Amino acid sequence: MTKSPSQRRHGLRMLAITIACGGLLCCVTNLDATETVKPPAPPPATPPLDTEAATVVCVNCDQKFEFPGHEEVNASLVGNKYVRELRQAMYLQDTYHQFESRAHFDNCAFGEATQYIQELLTEAGTYVANAEKAKAAARQSDAETYTQKAFFAIGQALHAVQDFFAHSNYVELMNGKVTKASEIPVLHPWLPRDIERIAELRKQGLISGYVFWGFPQTCPKSVPSHANLAKDSETTKSGKVKLPHLENLTQYKVALFLAKEASKDLVVYAFERWPMLAHMNGQYVAFEIFQERRGL
């Protein structure tokens, strides 16, 4: 089967990492016994939207929806090519960008990750501008293609935003300072003020898990591994920890709440910044929260 350019680049990156690290084992420092082997590649297919527990965002709407339910909304979202593009981008980050710390807030690469998100949003803006030009020139097909590419870039950014809460110790740093989970500030890693806040928190002990096959690796050697720190699910070591003073919620539930709110805010930000997206797509967008597919 002929490989796409992105697949070939990915394969070359894997080869370079293998050569540099002698089979991906030379950089190991903070490993559990189960973390000496790179996980298998995630499944290539994005699951159908109507089989997933998705969040639905309605930009500039009074109603709030959760998927499933509201059949008239669901039907339009399941077949929406822009929503499909956004969700596909979120899933493919764990495949084509598996080894990039910046794509997942791994290895304490906070500066690299926030810059990456900004680059993706700049890319989305360029696609929107091209879509607007195509629309003005009555080139509808080109306008749709550029809009799909904009949604793909936003989906990549959404994945990184969610991983900030799942892969860092932000929940651990904040939970002792509040009496309700809703009192924890929802950080937006694409906004300058919150990027500055993340830099400040780095001085106060903000870290993310060590991933031995991810690069760059900027954590001190004492940080926990990704497996020990990640809160992508309620079954991970950190995710299942309960917080009695926060209604006995698990750290996963708190991270999930924060990631969901930040994700909704990013979609609203994108639609308000680029009205063309709502014009082409409609007001409703659906996507998943915390779909870690790297076998960790």
What is this structure, in a nutshell?
50% of the residues lie in helices and 5% in strands.
Report on this model:
The chain is built from ten helices and five strands; from the N terminus they run H-E-E-H-H-H-H-H-H-H-E-E-H-H-E. The model is unreliable at 1-34 (pLDDT under 50). 50% of the residues lie in helices and 5% in strands. It has one domain. A hairpin with a 6-residue loop joins strand 1 (55-58) and strand 2. It starts with a helix and ends in a 9-residue tail after the last strand. The protein has helices at residues 5-21, 71-78, 81-96, 110-136, 140-167, 170-175, 192-203, 226-229, 251-273, 275-281; strands at residues 55-58, 65-66, 242-243, 249-250, 284-287. The protein is mainly α and 296 residues long. Helix 5 packs antiparallel against helix 9 (251-273) and helix 9 packs across helix 10 (275-281). The strands form two sheets. A three-stranded antiparallel β-sheet has the order 2-1-5. A two-stranded antiparallel sheet has the order 3-4.
The helicity comes to 40-55%
Main sheet overview = 3 strands, antiparallel
Could you say which structural class the secondary elements and strand pairing correspond to?
A: mainly alpha
Number of strands: 5
Strand content: under 5%
Describe the strand arrangement of the main beta sheet, using strand numbers.
Answer: 2-1-5
**Distance between the terminal alpha carbons, to the nearest Å?**
28 Å
Element pattern in H and E: HEEHHHHHHHEEHHE
Overall residue-averaged pLDDT value: 84
- Unreliable residue runs: 1-34
Query: What is the count of helical runs?
Result: 10
Taken together, the total number of domains comes to: 1
Shape annotation: globular
| Gyration radius over CA | 19 Å
